[in-house]
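I am still learning, so would you mind making up any protein sequence you like and the tokens describing how it folds?
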Amino acid sequence: MTFSPSGAAAPAAASAPEPAPYGISPAVTLGLFAAWALHDAEEVAFGPRWIRENVPALRKRFPQVPDSVWQFMETFDDREFRAAVGVMAVIVAAAAASGHRTGGRSAFFQGALNGFGLHGVMHLAQAAAARGYTPGSATSPVIVIPFTLWARARLRRAGLLRPVSVRDAVSGAAVAGAATVVSHAVARTLIRMS
């Protein structure tokens, strides 16, 4: 309780919400999951159908791509794709939670954030190579890349952003690719078991 200069009890001030650890807003850390969910909603809505309709033409346009890649893509079905997105949701949620718990300091969180941004750039490169829309290319320039740049700027301003080398970027892209392959393998296993 506080007292006014006259000695009378002053009403207690409303307590302010507890600040996020290290002053980083949950919009930075948990926002990774929200931005990812919006982006992946586009991929779920359009991915499997787009793949079925476009792989034959892409296979002709890019004969240097190994047949195993095209065969893998041709086996996608809607159930497997949705299950793979669910598995990836667990990975991204874990990264966002790790970032939130550590106030943005987590290497796992920052690596996932960087991988998310690179994933958006990859979608734009795919759209350029395909000379048109590819699933993920609509939300990449308006959600994925802007969110990543904004979150990295907030971490930088707070003195928490880890430096990223070319090696780190390549490693992050490899981890993101591996997570994608694992999510599809787990999804395929789950579908077979059901």
